């Protein structure tokens, strides 16, 4: 079903081979430590922006954080500003992907069914897959085309696509350009939703032989430096490891450092029991909390920052 909705072109689903190697080479060139000076200022600026939003309207913290991450990814990938239309479109294809990965699709058991006409009884999955495929292609094509035009007319801001597209156009390589387009389209889903490495990370982080009192939230356990660093496995393994690990770690560190410096965070009312969504990639259910500035003067300091 994943192939039917067009996600086989996504880096997370691409079979190992030349195409995947090319995609990962492009990503490593822009996301690796050698490129840190290119994206570090963008992360710092983005963190200042979201801190201002949290200071002004803390009750919308979930929206602020979500759009902050999405905005960073879009700016890094395409060099443009995040639009509401793109957010909605990208969320739809993430939902489509989760739906396609759910077990029970008859075509996954009987692949020959994908060759039958759409109008036959029982072929509703093909009609749904076509609609999902069109959404995915639009979400991949439109921002890439916009960046491509700006590269051609010399107005493109720095971005992942702009960085690699210039050399590809000079070589007149249509196959490389298609790989670049799909690689860029893969970045947003990985950055804002999740990666699709289905290893049992939960089991690794809840192994009582590695971590004491695994059900207790205790960040202090990592201060001694003797406990296994979870970043060694949360970003995947080998050729399927996340190429954005350095970008993600830098952004997460910067965001958490800024939040803890500026705000006191507490529960908004009674703390709900821990529960998770029943989706393919399970996440904690929504909860409410309060952000309060540690000092009123910090807001002036925040707005005085560049």
TrEMBL record:
Keywords of this entry: Heme, Iron, Membrane, Metal-binding, Monooxygenase, Oxidoreductase, Transmembrane, Transmembrane helix
Record-linked InterPro entries: Cyt_P450, Cyt_P450_CS, Cyt_P450_sf, Cytochrome_P450_fung
GO cellular component: membrane
Cell location: Membrane
SUPFAM superfamilies: Cytochrome P450
Domain of life: Eukaryota
Cofactor: heme
GO molecular function, one term: monooxygenase activity
Pfam families noted in UniProt: p450
Topology within the bilayer: Single-pass membrane protein
Family membership noted in the UniProt record: Belongs to the cytochrome P450 family.
Record's protein name: Cytochrome P450
Species assigned in the record: Rhizopogon vesiculosus
């Amino acid at each position: 079903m994943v192939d039917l909705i067009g996600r086989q072109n996504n880096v997370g689903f691409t079979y190992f081979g030349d195409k995947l190697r090319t995609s990962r080479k492009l990503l490593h060139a822009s996301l690796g430590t050698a490129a840190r000076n290119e994206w570090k200022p963008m992360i710092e600026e983005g963190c200042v922006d979201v801190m201002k939003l949290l200071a002004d309207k803390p009750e919308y913290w979930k929206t602020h954080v979500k759009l902050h991450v999405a905005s960073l990814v879009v700016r890094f990938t395409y060099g443009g500003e995040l639009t509401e239309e793109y957010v909605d479109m990208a969320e739809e294809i993430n939902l489509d992907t989760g739906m396609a990965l759910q077990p029970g699709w008859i075509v996954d058991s009987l692949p020959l069914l994908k060759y039958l006409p759409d109008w036959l009884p029982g072929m509703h999955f093909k009609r749904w897959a076509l609609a999902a495929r069109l959404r995915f292609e639009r979400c991949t094509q439109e921002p890439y085309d916009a960046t491509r035009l700006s590269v051609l007319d010399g107005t493109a801001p720095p971005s992942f696509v702009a960085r690699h597209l210039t050399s590809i156009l000079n070589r007149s390589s249509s196959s490389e350009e298609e790989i670049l387009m799909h690689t860029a389209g893969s970045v947003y889903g990985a950055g804002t939703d999740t990666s699709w490495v289905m290893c049992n990370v939960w089991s690794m982080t809840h192994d009582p032989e590695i971590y004491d009192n695994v059900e207790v939230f205790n960040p202090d356990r990592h201060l001694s430096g003797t406990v296994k660093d979870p970043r060694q496995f949360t970003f995947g393994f080998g050729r399927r490891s996340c190429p954005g690990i350095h970008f993600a770690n830098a952004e997460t560190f910067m965001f958490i450092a800024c939040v803890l410096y500026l705000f006191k965070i507490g529960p908004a009312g009674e703390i709900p029991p821990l529960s998770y969504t029943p989706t393919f990639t399970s996440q904690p259910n929504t909860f409410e909390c309060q952000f309060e500035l540690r000092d009123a003067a910090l807001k002036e300091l925040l707005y005085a920052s560049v």
